[in-house]
């Protein structure tokens, strides 16, 4: 976070900062997107673009825009077109012609084209689920592995394990449960496998899980928790309407009231 108006994101690989992006929530402008040349073509730019656009959408920006050099040597122009942005005007700045781009929610760079479905975790697929993992940088934010959740579920009858499947491939994992003492419904764990991050599966998975909770007639609200430093999770949950309920130094508990 740079300040309350502008937010920035860094991409780090092997201890080196390889990309940076920022956006302005007041104007809806994508301010900066930069990736080191030797790391181009690895999906870093698209991942950073997705983070900024998702944040601007969650802030309620009615119009998201940026400018890019339209010269033949300006590769950014083709990149934004490929990601679903469309030219809407131009600005002449000295010898440069800058093209205005806007993006609609139907063309967000994190749009998932294949349907995602929840599948039960069973004896046939539990090992595939156990192999799912977040990135090395994220492991401090997820203290319990997928295998740990599977093991704990053997002693917690209220836990339900879900695989997140796209085209018959498991790309994520979630745990839901009902507190036996107060009947509250919880999203206890939500993981997108590292190779599949930055492709919109987090948002698609949350949509599938919200549909699952909504189908439970006794569910009036959903609770979840995340580490305070897990800003990506905080932005994702906020974009679906989750609001902070209480906070400790180790965890922020958020809730979403379901319409009934």
UniProtKB/TrEMBL annotation:
Recorded GO molecular functions are: acyltransferase activity, transferring groups other than amino-acyl groups
Keywords, sorted A to Z? Transferase
Entries under PROSITE patterns matching the protein: GNAT
Residues forming the N-acetyltransferase domain are 1-104, 116-259
Recorded hits in InterPro entries, A to Z, give: Acyl_CoA_acyltransferase, GNAT_dom, MshD_Acetyltransferase
Pfam families (UniProt xref): Acetyltransf_1
- Gene3D superfamilies tied to this protein: 3.40.630.30
Q: What is this protein called?
A: Acetyltransferase (GNAT) family protein
- What organism is listed for this UniProt entry? Andreprevotia lacus DSM 23236
């Amino acid at each position: 976070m740079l300040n309350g108006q502008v937010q920035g994101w860094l991409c780090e690989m092997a201890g080196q900062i390889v990309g940076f992006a920022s956006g302005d929530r007041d104007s809806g402008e994508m301010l900066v997107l930069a990736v080191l040349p030797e790391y181009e073509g690895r999906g870093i730019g698209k991942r950073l673009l997705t983070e900024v656009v998702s944040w601007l959408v969650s802030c309620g920006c009615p119009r998201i825009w940026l400018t890019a050099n339209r010269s033949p040597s300006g590769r950014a122009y083709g990149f934004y077109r490929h990601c679903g942005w469309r030219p809407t005007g131009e600005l002449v700045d000295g010898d440069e012609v800058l093209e205005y781009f806007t993006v609609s929610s139907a063309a967000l760079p994190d749009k998932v084209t294949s349907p995602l479905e929840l599948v039960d975790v069973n004896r046939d697929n539990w090992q595939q689920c156990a192999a799912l993992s977040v990135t090395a940088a994220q492991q401090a934010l997820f203290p319990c592995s997928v295998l740990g959740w599977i093991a704990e579920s053997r002693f917690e009858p209220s836990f339900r394990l879900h695989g997140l499947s796209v085209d018959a491939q498991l790309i994520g994992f979630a745990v839901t449960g009902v507190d036996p003492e107060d009947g509250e419904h919880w999203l206890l764990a939500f993981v997108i496998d590292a190779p599949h991050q930055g492709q919109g599966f987090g948002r698609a998975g949350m949509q599938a899980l919200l549909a699952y909770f909504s189908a439970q007639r006794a569910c009036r609200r959903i609770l979840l928790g995340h580490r305070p430093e897990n800003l990506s999770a905080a932005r994702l949950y906020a974009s679906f309407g989750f609001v902070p309920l209480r906070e400790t130094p180790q965890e922020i508990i958020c809730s979403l009231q379901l319409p009934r």
